[in-house]
């Protein structure tokens, strides 16, 4: 079973911590001695080596100076920055507002030619109607207890961003679990409009919409929602954070997982039949 996104992020942090610890030991320094050489309390050294605190670039420079390993500075700084950037806390993101999040992701979308999306819980943002998006973002505003609820503006921004599915130069392969069609995120009317739009979106030239039937024989278990931008970035949505995966080996794991999930999905008339069944169930 592949490591979870949270494990991958933590492992990246621990890799930096272990390299710093090895440099200290190779230099023959104790935790206390290194702390004295760096000019901080020894507890900070312990926190860094146990991956409880991420080292700053200046911390790494002091560490390498103390262990006479200045040639490791640049590599360690880059590795540490990459490890810390794997986690983007939702709370930090939403501080600037839900609309800001929608707008900030537009450049990455426009730079992507082949976009793969898997969702086990919601209709993906690029295929959402405004009413459905408003319900989703309203829940997000409530969950995060935002001081200013800009979910209406964010929903409009999301729909504006979603027009990219009508533009040339992009291909969208979307796979969702059938249970997504029955998750009552919105009231019946906007929910029906959303399901109806999936019938239209699935017929767009740039969109391949697959649905994994609940009755399908599973060859892979459901996963967290994730987005693959070409072969360069995977964005994974967790409860507490969004994890950005950039390591080629891990991206390859997500590509393989996506293909396994995609192979279980139905398309075309069979997918439309599942959507029509879910619309009937609303009534």
Automatic annotation (TrEMBL):
Under the heading Gene3D superfamilies, the entry gives: lambda repressor-like DNA-binding domains
Under SMART domains, the record lists:
HTH_XRE (SM00530)
InterPro entries the UniProt entry points to: Cro/C1-type_HTH, DUF5753, Lambda_DNA-bd_dom_sf
Q: Name one GO molecular function term.
A: DNA binding
**Where's the HTH cro/C1-type domain?**
20-76
UniProt cross-references to Pfam families, sorted A to Z: DUF5753, HTH_31
Identification of the protein by name: Transcriptional regulator
């Amino acid at each position: 079973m592949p490591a979870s996104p949270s494990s991958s992020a933590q492992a990246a942090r621990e890799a930096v911590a272990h390299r710093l610890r090895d440099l200290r030991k190779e230099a023959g320094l104790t935790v206390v001695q290194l702390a004295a050489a760096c000019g901080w309390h020894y507890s900070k050294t312990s926190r860094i080596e146990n991956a409880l605190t991420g080292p700053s670039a200046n911390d790494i420079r002091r560490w390498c100076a103390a262990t006479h390993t200045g040639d490791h500075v640049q590599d360690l700084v880059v590795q540490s920055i990459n490890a810390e950037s794997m986690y983007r806390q939702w709370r930090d993101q939403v501080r600037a507002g839900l609309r800001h999040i929608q707008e900030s992701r537009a450049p990455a979308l426009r730079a992507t030619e082949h976009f793969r999306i898997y969702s086990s819980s919601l209709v993906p943002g690029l295929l959402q109607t405004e009413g459905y998006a408003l319900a989703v973002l309203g829940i997000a505003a409530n969950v995060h207890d935002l001081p200013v609820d800009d979910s209406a503006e964010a929903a409009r921004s999301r729909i504006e961003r979603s027009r990219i599915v009508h533009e040339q130069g992009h291909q969208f392969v979307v796979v969702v679990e059938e249970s997504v069609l029955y998750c009552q995120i919105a009231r019946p009317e906007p929910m029906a409009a959303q399901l109806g739009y999936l019938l239209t979106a699935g017929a767009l030239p740039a969109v391949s919409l697959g649905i994994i039937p609940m009755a399908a024989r599973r060859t892979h278990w459901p996963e967290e929602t994730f987005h693959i931008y070409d072969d360069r970035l995977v964005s994974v949505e967790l409860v507490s954070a969004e994890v950005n995966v950039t390591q080629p080996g891990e991206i390859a794991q997500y590509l393989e997982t996506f293909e396994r999930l995609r192979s279980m999905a139905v398309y075309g008339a069979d997918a439309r039949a599942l959507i029509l069944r879910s619309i009937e169930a609303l009534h």
